[in-house]
Task: structure prediction
Amino acid sequence: MTTRPSYAEIRADLLKRHPSGEAPGGVAIDDIVQLRLQNTWDSHLDIARQMAGVMRADMAAYDADSAKFTQSLGCWSGFHAQQMIKAVKRLRGTAKGTYVYLSGWMVAGLRNRWGHLPDQSMHEKTAVADLIQEIYVSLRQADEVAINDLFKTLKAAKTEAERKAAIAAIDGFETHVVPIIADIDAGFGNEHATYLLAKELIKAGACCLQIENQVSDAKQCGHQDGKVTVPREDFIEKLRACRLAFEELGVEDGVIVARTDSLGAGLTQKVPVSQQAGDLASDYIKWLKTEPITAGNPIREGELALYQGGEFVKPQRLPNGLFPFKENTGRARVIEDCVASLNQGGADLLWIETDTPNVDEIAGMVAEIRQKAPKAKLTYNNSPSFNWTLNLRKQVRSQWLAEGKIQAGDYPEGNELMKAEFDATDLGREADARLRRFQTDISARAGVFHNLITLPTFHLTAKSVDELSRGYFGEDKMLAYVATVQREEIRRGVSAVKHQHEVGSDLGDSFKEMVSGERALKAGGHANTMNQFAAE
Result:
């Protein structure tokens, strides 16, 4: 995923400077080679530049073959991200096509100094950049630990064949560092504030920024009510702010995801100024809920009037000053938002926040968008805010009823479909089959390049701690920990079971040997309890 010099190249370069095979002070050349390989990037900005290239290559691959979509899970700590990438590498042998999603929701809920907060941009801006920095520190440390293990194998090699195999493993090592898609919310202020924050996220390592078209000071979670969108000109200015931040910092391939919340947003904060029919402002204004000006409903002091369709009308206005849109116009506004973001805002990817996971619905919107923006690609939120089981079961029931496969009384209509008794039914199995292929279907049919789950590690942590606590503080005591955690770690090959090694104790021992030789006081001796896992 990144180009690094080979073991032989670094060693040859060092020998030009130190032909004796030692640097001043008796430092061994091979030790310097190891440390050089463990420190591939000069800075996290360097990571942003390289990972942007990775994303661009992945996007081109997807354009050629929709089966090559990418995936990520939302992570709220560096350790979560590290363990996710390690799991993918154990499963696939590679982390290619895997990213980390940095969720603004989880930063607000779990990573700010003000406590658990809702997803309303109330957390400190710095918390987002801090988490990006933390994730890349963790991923880079995973590299360091793994490369140290490879060099231990090299040092232990007894034959030339073993030595060549060890060097080949070092040169073939694939980094744990992957692209991060970072949620910048609605920009945390005006376009200048967006630009300043974007620069901090990029310098922390983000190669991709996701920004939404809500009002910064009234921002809501995408799956809550009360969302307020901004005129398209305002949003385009924030897209430009993000692009300028990428360009200024030399991240020329930086990726911008333009998110629209218009499907569920029924309000706007201001009425933009239209210069002519069909411009961005007039296309936004036309969806406002209005009422005619008549003798019985005259224009009053302090009210606004719009000239539409050859007559003056009044836009409705709420007591808080917000303007409502006409009902059932969200879909049309989404189409226009997306086309404007791509064609006039220079966005690279789209994000359409939906209220249910429905492949047909997304595919229909994308088909319309592609009439004016043929290369439109999406990032899609496979959100935990959806009741996936209930949604998919309802979709199957509705389709089977329409096709005459079942009768209305065969399965209940509402929330009863969630009951466990339907798990092993034909409908339950079909819904699960559709869940298994959901990402494949939506990527093939609806232009979804990247599938993510925003809050999985939030829910996973809650469930896992609940599971362990119920057993440990209940009847099972130590068996609860051993059976549900340690035994599973061992049998799955989860490296974190050797927790001392996972956080770098062997790395520390190696460094002590580099500088102290036989005098090194090491942690990994015979008394280290991690030796109990040595055979696993």
The mean pLDDT is 91. The first strand starts at residue 22 and ends at 23.
